[in-house]
DNA sequence: CTGAGTGCAAAACATTTGCATCCAG
DNA sequence: CTGGATGCAAATGTTTTGCACTCAG
């Protein structure tokens, strides 16, 4: 997916940011691990194997940057740490089933909530830009 | 609302836990601040005014305990800290609109998602025990 | 060249834990 | 009395920051 890299390059250019090797590498790792929900530490461990001279702080700063640019999203599974995933290119929302037993996270899509969302926005005069839904329970294995 | 205190007392008794003055005080503060979403630090500040000899660690331990007992719920607004609120007595779910600009949190109820939830549970063979929904956007004031 | 980006170590926070002391039942 | 509960300080774990050095544009 060479396009993602080009996207990043352009995005960075518009803000006078630079496309460094570290940023390229972290983007690549995110691409290689789509569907997983990596923490900064996870990424740091992977990154170290390929380029030992990279700092954890840079991982954090890069994830922060990518998040600001909108190419990744921060996830929060009520753990002690943040996780990250590549944003969905389109508007296809996807959300999570979180197993309270083993912590497994299952993804699902929805297209049902639009009406509900519109209604809600009206009622509270609130301009909704995104939503995040999590269902908690027991997964197949843990029941 | 004397009943809440009695509830707590009974709950504690069944597990051989004790009803200490600190636990009473923290329950009272939670009752006095319904609808707000207090952090441990918030509670600690309030608690200190009324009983200067109480430790932050006790606040955390008490909130943890209350959470286990199910009388409060932990909230996570993608901040750096946890917040807490008294659980809804009945099954009435309530969720949040989070303003991305000012951080304001607006509550709303829903009874719409049941069907969606059932369907989802079926499809993924996932036993859902609760759900958490957050919508993000701009509130009335910040638009 | 030059300012943005990086690595490293130190700092900053929220939360947890060890331990001696205290007190509810 | 006695084990659960507390206060304090120290420890932990994640994320952030200061600063001198590096490198992409």
From TrEMBL, chains A, B:
Fe cation binds at residues 93, 114, 131. This is Fe2+/Zn2+ uptake regulation protein. Transmembrane segments: none annotated. Keywords: DNA-binding, Iron, Metal-binding, Repressor, Transcription, Transcription regulation, Zinc. It comes from the Bacteria. InterPro entries: FUR, Fur_C, WH-like_DNA-bd_sf, WH_DNA-bd_sf. Zn(2+) binds at residues 99, 102, 139, 142. It comes from Halobacteroides halobius (strain ATCC 35273 / DSM 5150 / MD-1). Its cofactor is Mn(2+); Fe(2+); Zn(2+). Binds 1 Mn(2+) or Fe(2+) ion per subunit. The keyword Zinc applies. One of its GO terms (biological process) is negative regulation of DNA-templated transcription. The keyword Lipid metabolism does not apply. Pfam families: FUR. One of its GO terms (molecular function) is zinc ion binding. Belongs to the Fur family.
